[in-house]
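Model the whole thing, not chain by chain.
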Amino acid sequence: MLTVCLPGTGGFMPLVDRWLTCCWIEYQGHAILIDCGEGTQLALKEAGLHLSRLDMVLITHFHADHVAGLAGMLLSLGNTGRGEDQPLMIAGPPGLCKIIPALLVIAPLPYPVHLAELSPGDSLPGYGDLSITCTALKHRIPCYGYRVDLKRRPVFSPEKADALSVPKPFWKKLHGGETVQLPDGRTICPDQVIERPRAPISVSYCTDTLPIPEIAEFAKGVDLMIAEGMYGDDSMAEKVAEKRHSLYSQSARLAKEAGAKRLWLTHFSPAMQDPEEHLEAARAIFSNTEAGKDGMKTELEGED
Amino acid sequence: MLTVCLPGTGGFMPLVDRWLTCCWIEYQGHAILIDCGEGTQLALKEAGLHLSRLDMVLITHFHADHVAGLAGMLLSLGNTGRGEDQPLMIAGPPGLCKIIPALLVIAPLPYPVHLAELSPGDSLPGYGDLSITCTALKHRIPCYGYRVDLKRRPVFSPEKADALSVPKPFWKKLHGGETVQLPDGRTICPDQVIERPRAPISVSYCTDTLPIPEIAEFAKGVDLMIAEGMYGDDSMAEKVAEKRHSLYSQSARLAKEAGAKRLWLTHFSPAMQDPEEHLEAARAIFSNTEAGKDGMKTELEGED
């Protein structure tokens, strides 16, 4: 089960009633944070998330509204008692190894920070069975989208195992993907006792960007697609394109194309007071669309 | 008249109900901000202050809780329409010319930023009749206190002017400090028509620091002394000294010694939930002591 939360949903500047866009993905008490604008440490607190669980920070791009809260948050993380033996990974687009140390010049930390500059398409291992991939988006500066997949065990078939007279003590190993040798000398492969594979539990996060078709490919079949909705009103199309952002309707089209199960919109313009206002138009394109709200949370269980 | 506001009063990290310590000093629509931690741009907004009026930022020292909000705030200042012809001055301790550009690497600005590294005792001109001086405090890293003085015209004596038969059209110039020559050939100096000088309107801001005696000297006779109160409870003395901060009682003693008219305490520890709690003990030392509150504001009129 993957916990996904949007502690903040605003773009450009923090507002008194809307924190800057970021995303918290937690699995078995280990968390990944995507983006960290000014105030994100407070947004996490208000959302009831535990900073001490943070393993990794992914940065989409180096605009201040996505990264200016890093120094303060990492200092607060230091105050949770994190020490030398608990490194934090920060990954993002090229430039990271220069920019992050520059931002952290005011933040002496009691734990190590590991930096990773990614190339589009790179994969990173996360905690346990999590894997993280990135893709190039199309913004004014290099910007990445991220996808987190939690690999799931296939469906085990007790019937097949019984039919092959596999003793129960061997079931767990077989279900976990190991080939076993039985006391009677026979070798049994996992495939022989598996009913069917299960799709990973997956979430994608793509902002700030023009609505390029590559996003639909990248987010193929995700349980939850988190995408940009700078404005809901299609009449803002020109302004949004000029700034290299996306509209509700454009992200809804991508979600449909991706075959996503749900879509959460985020990164709202400060000028948009009510993100629910143009939601119906987006739902006409992709019905399972929601406008993000600070602190919005879900537990992704995957199918079956 | 000088407007002084404490948009935030917390130390170390922003809290959901307490912004980080900073100070706004405004005169005739031109403002100086001292310190800019994470969230200060929101603190200003909540306090009803107009970011567009900002002329100068003074930094006490380069710990994140005093400077990490700079990039975000300066970007928002850019959104107020500030352009090429409206430079912003940022001044502070040595290191500023390296650290500020590092922090602003994520913040491309549409207006020029002028940087000034100050030495202890330096003076800077502010808008109009404002002058700013700095002093070295005693913290873990180089840290400055600031004092802002608004020079005031002396009290004019119409009686003396009449006694000398100075025609009224010359009064304003004389009051402004100009020597004039009358139509009858006489030369009149300002001193001849002045009743008495008036003390400047003044405010001092000293945090984070041990309670060194130099602070009392620096803040001599100020209308408002703003000083550190990390804790109110004197039993915290050892911890506070070790971290090179100050207690309520220590700042109250400095205010008494300085002959300040009022004292505002600020930079409270996040562990201190109610800054009013130990106020009486501080008032026993210096009666005109107040615990800062986010958004606390006063108009300093000066005497007479």
